[in-house]
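[Meeting: bench + compute handoff]

Bench side (C.D.) handed over the final construct sequence. Compute side (W.E.) agreed to return the predicted structure before the next meeting so the bench team could plan truncations. Sequence as handed over:
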Amino acid sequence: MPIFAKDERWQLYVPSGVTVARIILTPLFLDLLLANRLLAATGLFVLLGFSDMLDGYLARRLNAETSFGAYLDVAADFLLVFSAFFAFVIKGVYPYWLLLLISAMFLQFVLSSSSKPTFDPLGKYYGAFLFIAIGLTLMLPDLALTYALLLIILAVTLVSLTSRWLYFLRQRRNLN
């Protein structure tokens, strides 16, 4: 149930404002990672992760869900995830091709969504898993853990792509 009347237009901008704040703070997060200020980077990452949950909550609560806001949220998530893994690649924690994989997954999501992002439960979990992988890499920078996370990222990517492909096949079959 919305907490404001429908005619209060300012509420439409609140969730996107939270998302824009996440975009603005992402370069600081990247700088902290590259400067090996892991405690500060981890703290900021937790704040940015919280803002990712907050903008969606506010959009629903304020009845301010928009296609623009949904795409802005996805773009902010991509920027944060890509920045974190970019820093990890620079530091030699993960291979460079992981950046290509993450970019390809984001691109396929955008291209396969029409006027608004297509709800893909596995895609949502894919993004959440990447956030968890970043958090674990920040807190437990262990070689065995990063190899395990890399394998899991590859497996989850394959499952997510397969799920999306099957979803579109079912949609196509329903249209015929």
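W.E. noted at the follow-up: The chain is about 80% helix and 0% strand. C.D. will use this when planning the next construct.
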